[in-house]
Amino acid sequence: AQSVTQPDIHITVSEGASLELRCNYSYGATPYLFWYVQSPGQGLQLLLKYFSGDTLVQGIKGFEAEFKRSQSSFNLRKPSVHWSDAAEYFCAVGAFRNKLVFGAGTILRVKS
Amino acid sequence: DGGITQSPKYLFRKEGQNVTLSCEQNLNHDAMYWYRQDPGQGLRLIYYSQIVNDFQKGDIAEGYSVSREKKESFPLTVTSAQKNPTAFYLCASSSGTGTPNTEAFFGQGTRLTVV
Q1: CA distance linking residue B11 with residue B114, whole number of Å
Q2: What is the pLDDT of residue A45?
Q3: Are A57 and A40 contacting, i.e. CB atoms less than 8 angstroms apart?
Q4: Residues 6+ apart with CB under 8 A from A57
Q5: In whole numbers, what is the pLDDT of chain A averaged over residues?
């Protein structure tokens, strides 16, 4: 069965510092991978997605992610974090019938 | 503007009551989904529907029911059989019904609290 692991429950970074959020997936076939962001009490917004092709994908708000098949990973990165990036981030893998299997999420705190 | 509307934003339920959460989309999407979110557990799939008048159970369907009488609407009923209904509920839709390569769009959520 498909599964997604986000090893870090909380991460705190200083404003202006770089960010990497980890995501590992388990999926038997070619994975369809997503990163979503959620502000408190809100719905989820898509940051980026990987289906095929270039393993480095660019998303909104300056985020990027790199797909590494050998490591079953899809880590999210940002070169310089802004205070407005504080939120919860979810990695997900697409399953049959467009169901999404989510990781437990990583809460990002940004300190000034 | 196209999107997904969930209502109400906050909902309070007494023990033993059934409550219905509304989800409406004007994106002309075929597929709709209900997820439950609890702190530290991510999102778990309750029910999903690929087409009108058809729906399937997700991973945690016990104590919930749905209907899909119209393409635009996918209401979720939390029944008295759901023993721990306090959670944040998210509705989503997507255009694809086959391969999982289309993104899902989410509503703003409904926070249900048992009082």
Answers
A1: 9
A2: 95
A3: no
A4: A48, A49, A50, A64, A65, A66, A67
A5: 93
Residues B23 and A4: their CA atoms lie apart, in Å, by 27
Closest partner residue to A102 among B4, B42, B109, by Cβ?
B42
Joined tokens for residue A14 = 């200083």
Question: In chain B, what residues touch A51 (CB-CB under 8 Å)?
Answer: 101
Distance, CA of B79 to CA of A14 (rounded, Å): 45
Tell me which residue has tokens 């437990």. A104
pLDDT of B77 strictly over 70: yes
User: Count of A–B CB contacts within 8 Å?
Assistant: 74
3-state secondary structure chain A: CCEEECCCCEEEEECCCCEEECCEEECCCCCEEEEEEECCCCCEEEEEEECCCCCEEECHHHCEEEEEHHHCEEEEEECCCCHHHCEEEEEEEECHHHCEEECCCEEEEEEC
Number of Cβ within a 10 Å radius of residue B18: 12
Q: Using the beta-carbon criterion (under 8 Å), do B104 and A97 form an inter-chain contact?
A: no
> CB distance A98–B43 less than 8 Å?
no
Mean pLDDT of chain B: 92
Residues sharing a CB contact under 8 Å with residue B1, sequence separation 6 or more, in sequence order: none
